């Protein structure tokens, strides 16, 4: 079952990053990376066309209280969110508290270990502080970067599925799970 999440008063720190709630002061940082071709498409959305579009997304992040801003050296470089997972796709999680983890990182910071660092701390938070039993995570079949982050963080591929992008394209994705008991062994 989908557990309740509220990150509005939560700040997490890693060696290089701060994971924190969004503020309206972050709009320009979001627009700076979300408007770049090749970033959002890997997460299923098109590049932002205006700062107003980015502002509406930040307002949504603030209102729904389930997406962290990933901050590095005073600048927001990505997101780490805890969405509701599709319970029908994961019958093995019946009776367990879970959420789906999603993430996006500015193209300028790819390949430097930032996302693995952020996801690792997000997983710790969900299991230790929130008390989840499991975390799901998906990636498009061709998204090798997301696949590698998920593998490094201990997720196991459980099945393939078809999901729609926000721009109406159907894509094959891999559905992955990380169980708390498996995470404890890592």
Overview of the molecule:
- With 186 residues, the protein is an alpha+beta fold.
- It contains 5 helices and 8 strands.
- It has helices at residues 27-34, 51-64, 114-130, 144-152, 180-185; strands spanning 12-13, 18-21, 67-72, 75-83, 98-105, 134-140, 156-164, 170-179.
- Strands 1-2-3-4-5-6-8-7 form an 8-stranded mixed sheet, with helices on both faces.
- Helix 1 (27-34) crosses helix 2.
- The model has no long low-confidence stretch (mean pLDDT 94).
Q: What topology does this entry show?
A:
Blueprint (H helix, E strand, L loop, with lengths): L11 E2 L4 E4 L5 H8 L16 H14 L2 E6 L2 E9 L14 E8 L8 H17 L3 E7 L3 H9 L3 E9 L5 E10 H6 L1
Helix pairs in contact: 1-2
The strand order across the widest sheet is: 1-2-3-4-5-6-8-7
Structural class: alpha+beta
Whole-number mean pLDDT: 94
Oligomeric category: single chain
- Spatial shape: globular
- What is the β-strand count? 8
Strand content: 25-35%
- DSSP helix count? 5
Radius of gyration: 16 Å
Poorly predicted spans: none
What is the makeup of the main sheet?
Answer: 8 strands, mixed
Instruction: Report, as a whole number of angstroms, the end-to-end distance.
Output: 24 Å
**Series of H and E elements:** EEHHEEEHEHEEH
Helix content: 25-40%
